[in-house]
């Protein structure tokens, strides 16, 4: 290995999105033809509860740099996780370690330094997972106390022993925490974590927070007056009432949970496990905020509310459709809505309509007139857009390449006893929660628009609140993408899979999919919005589908080195002018008529001449 003056870069959560560029820049700057496999990678982290000098970030960095100099490593890359508590032991909760872990799996990291085993993880399952990847990819692991060679049985044994010691130390810390909590409880002090909304803690004592308690009273009164959860949620948002965790928007389930709490009538029961794992029960006494009679009336209303579960859990409502959160009217730039009515024969019709058009007809003096005044049959529109998106998805090289990587590159064949099913369930629950949040934010945007056009909210406040909601939607969409990657990694447990066959099966399953929730889950991964243009002269609709990724007309080709490269395409596709009238389907012969209508809609779609899955297989190296 060539000697060179030590040079380094530092990667942290602040510049994590640029880590590839920073590494390439460092290699290019050295001008010595080094590869990333020649470099030393240093991972540093401190616990948020443990900032001793021996474990400080600067000290860990210094030790890593000294090792690099001593071992004549040409360049050093510092992976700085900063402060992460012992509650963040899993890889997906530590973004810097997650990227380093992916680098190890891809074979680009061959030399790794950590101060000791606890910097990686004190969790036995996570340590085993990291050990497996280090061993599988022939990574040399350096520690303050020495070097590990995973081809050596003795070093493998020592790694396992030290990992167990780290987990034991974590257990000791937990025991001390429990003993401290028990001591506070016996002295009548609050130690149940974050105090509930409407309360504050001073010197360990529970006191009423009068700024918050007035909103607690309003919530109980509103619900007692048969106001909906949606109404309460909207009022709290408009008045800038933040949740206990500082969120601008209250979850409807959180509102119900608050309304059920006995603390507002003077007490609450608290249970935790002592050091032996036995339950310890304690009753906290609170200052009374709500009268007992009012609290009981609210409990009866909650108990007897048939629609409450659907309102809390975001179940598919009767008026929910596939595209309600995606269709944007080109005439006014606002989200389109849905309208249901009955025709002369008493049959129900469902159409997408511009909400600005509805407002204009209700009050033409107050609201502007939108040029798009033609509604669209809901079923026909859904089928047209769904079929078009599936065609784009099936024929995109970028999608296929990502699919292949998810199936093959992210495989972990040895899970070392990890609770995979439990982890998957946890991630799926998180995904369901985020999807409900997105629906909630879209609903609040619609409500906010109504309030604005009725003159109840000023323009400045309307734009500020709407901007916050749109930011929340964007953040949640990114979380959905990250959760999907984690679930895919947990599910895949085979190293070699006929991924093209699976891709083909995936397409056919999607083409036959009818369940609304699953269709929406799929669209949420790829679809940004759909702009709808109505041409008054031709009486035809044009749809511009805008995707989150550039998957339209992407190309796969060989470069000079014989390596296959995918050139990104465009992120939008326009469906040619199409007739989507408002007439309902005739269901006298349900299957025949439905299929004929689908064929007519599909025949309107003209996509570029992409290669099929079979054609794509011919290019595989």
In words, what does this structure look like?
- The chain has 621 residues and is an alpha/beta fold.
- Helix content is 46%, strand content 17%.
- It contains 19 helices and 19 strands.
- It has helices at 19-30, 57-70, 95-105, 124-136, 153-186, 210-224, 229-238, 252-260, 292-304, 308-313, 355-362, 378-394, 397-409, 420-453, 459-491, 499-511, 516-526, 590-603, 613-617, and strands at 7-11, 40-46, 75-83, 111-114, 140-143, 146-148, 199-202, 205-208, 267-273, 279-285, 327-329, 336-342, 348-354, 376-377, 527-535, 540-547, 555-558, 564-567, 572-578.
- The strands form six sheets. It has a six-stranded mixed sheet, sandwiched between helices.
- A hairpin with a 5-residue loop joins strand 9 (267-273) and strand 10 (279-285).
- Helix 4 (124-136) runs antiparallel to helix 5 (153-186), helix 12 (378-394) crosses helix 18 (590-603) and helix 14 (420-453) runs antiparallel to helix 15.
- The radius of gyration is 29 Å and the shape is flat.
- Mean pLDDT is 75; it is low at 1-6, 49-54, 309-317, 409-417, 493-497 and 584-621.
